[in-house]
Specification:
single chain; 5 helices; globular
């Protein structure tokens, strides 16, 4: 689940939700198993740039590959 790793890296649901201006429940749905309302571990593309910027501000290493859920070393 790429979403869990990214959200944990950035400080959790509340930190990410505040940075993106969305509810914590929206962020937590990214990490839930796939269903009609959950994304099954995927982060919507619309938030990728803001998450990359947040990571940079916080001095964290985050890549497009991590956001996409690719295991690239």
């Amino acid at each position: 689940q790429p979403a869990r790793g990214v959200v944990d890296l950035l400080g959790g649901c509340r930190v990410v939700s505040r940075a993106l201006g969305i509810s914590p429940s929206t962020v937590s749905r990214w990490m839930a198993p796939k269903s009609r309302q959950n994304l099954g571990g995927r982060i919507p593309l619309a938030h990728w740039q803001a998450l990359l910027e947040l990571a940079k501000r916080e001095g964290k290493s985050l890549t497009i590959h991590q956001l996409a859920g690719m295991n690239v070393e």
